[in-house]
């Protein structure tokens, strides 16, 4: 299986370093252009996928729709609530800064453990074929958790060696009996 993990295009809150979580913040013009450019690059490089799954939050939904339209993907996009962003609890809308302890229970955020359980549940509900190419368009935190799950928990959540970044695709090649490999496509 080959997974293409795509983080939605930029929002104003991304630009302001605000924690979005479940807030339904739309992409800004930069984000829309990022997704158009990414889809154009996919067309040039003949990137094809068999299934397209996305978060139903507008920023991811619109990103998936741009990719589907520009690449000629004709099947239905599956919008799955399990791929929404991490619940940021009391920090939603607040400005992120490096010293902020996101794991402090006083903020009532979804824990990394809960996020990874949700990522596992999201992946487990689908019957993927061994030769299938699956694109998941979602959000930074949940896609990082998906990366951790796909690595069989060999990659730590906070390891940014192969990050999920806007305007790129993190590819995850998963084969039975082999270690999952990760690489950024562009």
Describe the structure.
- There is one protein chain.
- By secondary structure, the chain is an alpha/beta fold.
- 31% of the residues lie in helices and 14% in strands.
- The chain contains 5 helices and 6 strands; from the N terminus they run βααβαβαβαββ.
- It has helices at 12-15, 29-44, 58-71, 112-124, 140-150; strands at 2-7, 51-54, 78-79, 133-138, 170-173, 181-184.
- A hairpin with a 7-residue loop joins strand 5 and strand 6 (181-184).
- Helix 2 (29-44) runs parallel beside helix 3 (58-71) and helix 4 crosses helix 5 (140-150).
- The chain is globular and about 45 Å long.
Put the structure in a nutshell:
The protein is globular, with a radius of gyration of 16 Å.
Index terms:
5 helices; alpha/beta; 31% helix; 6-stranded mixed beta sheet; single chain; 14% strand
Strand content bin: 5-15%
Could you estimate the helical fraction of the residues in percent?
A: 25-40%
Helix and strand element order: EHHEHEHEHEE
Q: Radius of gyration, Cα only, in angstroms?
A: 16 Å
Tell me the distance between the termini: 19 Å
Based on DSSP secondary structure assignment, what is the total number of beta strands? 6
- Counted by DSSP, the helix tally is 5
Quick check: average pLDDT? 96
Q: Which word captures the global form?
A: globular
Low-confidence stretches: none
Q: What composes the largest sheet?
A: 6 strands, mixed
Which structural class do the helices and strands define?
Answer: alpha/beta
């Amino acid at each position: 299986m080959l997974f293409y993990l795509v983080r939605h295009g930029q929002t104003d809150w991304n630009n302001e370093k605000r924690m979005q979580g479940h807030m339904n913040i739309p992409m800004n013009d930069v984000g829309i252009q990022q997704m158009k450019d990414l889809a154009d690059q996919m067309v040039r490089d003949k990137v094809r996928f068999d299934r397209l799954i996305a978060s139903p939050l507008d920023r991811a939904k619109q990103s998936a729709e741009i990719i589907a339209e520009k690449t000629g993907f004709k099947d239905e996009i599956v919008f799955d609530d399990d791929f929404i962003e991490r619940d940021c609890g009391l920090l939603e809308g607040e400005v992120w800064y490096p010293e902020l302890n996101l794991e402090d229970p006083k903020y009532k955020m979804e824990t990394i453990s809960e996020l990874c359980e949700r990522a596992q549940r999201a992946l487990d509900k689908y019957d993927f074929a061994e030769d299938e190419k699956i694109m998941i368009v979602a959000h930074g935190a949940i896609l990082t958790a998906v990366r951790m799950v796909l690595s069989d928990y060999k990659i730590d959540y906070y390891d940014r060696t192969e990050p999920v970044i806007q305007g790129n695709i993190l590819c995850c090649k998963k084969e039975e009996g082999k270690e999952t490999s990760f690489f950024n496509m562009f």
